[in-house]
Design brief:
Length: about 290
């Protein structure tokens, strides 16, 4: 059985190096295209019944999640969302009232849905949302900018998202913008597939390794450190910042230090007594075949 990561690597290998209007290509949290002096972000994400939500979940929260997921990626680049397109593939049996509540859930995020598509079919509910964002003169923060000596930080507690946070999270747009403009962090990524897996993506893109201090990793009430590492769908941001910047982030209550970026490869986790584990890039991955 193969997974989405294998397919993504195959796709990226076929793209080759592209320039022109493409400022940031496939492989980061969002694509960035040049339009004059501006940098415009594009991101698409999907949610599927039975995978990202259950049939009996409140439709407002399903709509919220469908739009909030790509907004979290815009946040990880430091961008400002401008508008969204929503495509709904709905079961033919879905009541009109439920469909309207899905859209109301999107509206509450304050990003206008400016178009999209509606269709029906015999299967399950699927929603695909594309978001257009604007860097407003700032440089996008990439996964690939982390440097040895940087402090690793997260914007909030991790783990146990299935108890409700996976539907009700608020994308860290304000924090991401601050990190891209005033504080100028080196690298960011949002946590969708799990802290360990997404930190692995950041380290791989930057060509670095990471050292984590287990007791410092914030966990949601009722979650374990294992849940914080691997559960996923936290939609917090992982940040790599120089020590002076990390100190400012800590003072302003915008992030929590959990480790350091180091030379080499791999993720190691320590506790008060020494090395606990070498962390594999485990987390959620869609399977194929």
């Amino acid at each position: 059985m193969s997974g989405e990561l294998e397919l993504l690597k195959w796709i990226h290998a076929r793209l080759g190096k592209r320039s022109g209007r493409i400022a940031v290509d496939s492989g980061d949290d969002a694509a960035v295209l040049k339009f004059g002096r501006e940098r415009i972000l594009f991101k698409v994400d999907s949610v599927l019944e039975g995978v990202h939500f259950r049939r009996n979940d409140p439709p407002e929260w399903v709509g919220h999640k469908a739009l909030a997921r790509p907004l979290s990626d815009i946040a990880a680049m430091g961008g400002v969302p401008v508008g969204a397109l929503a495509a709904l593939m709905m079961p033919r049996s879905m009541p009109m009232a439920r469909a309207k509540l899905i859209y109301r859930g999107m509206e509450k995020l304050g990003v206008p849905v400016v178009g999209g598509d509606i269709s029906t079919h015999p299967g399950k509910l699927a929603i695909s949302v594309s978001v257009l964002g604007d860097m407003r003169g700032a440089r996008p923060v990439l996964r690939s900018g982390a440097k040895p000596g940087d402090v690793l930080m997260v914007t909030g507690p991790l783990g146990g998202s299935i108890r409700g946070k996976h539907l009700k999270f608020e994308p860290r747009l304000e924090e991401g913008r601050i990190f891209a403009t005033r504080l100028r962090v080196h690298a960011m990524i949002d946590i969708s597939d799990g802290f360990a897996r997404d930190l692995g993506h950041l380290c791989e893109a930057s060509g670095v390794g990471a050292t984590l201090f287990g007791p410092a990793i914030p966990t949601m009430t009722g979650s374990s450190i294992k849940g914080a590492l691997y559960d996923g769908e936290d939609y917090e941001l992982i940040i790599a910042a120089p020590p002076a910047t990390a100190a400012m982030i800590d003072r302003e209550g915008l992030g929590i230090s959990v480790g350091m970026v180091r030379s080499g490869r791999g993720i190691r986790m320590y506790d008060n007594d020494g090395l606990v584990a070498v962390i594999g890039p485990h987390g959620y991955e869609h399977k194929l075949g």
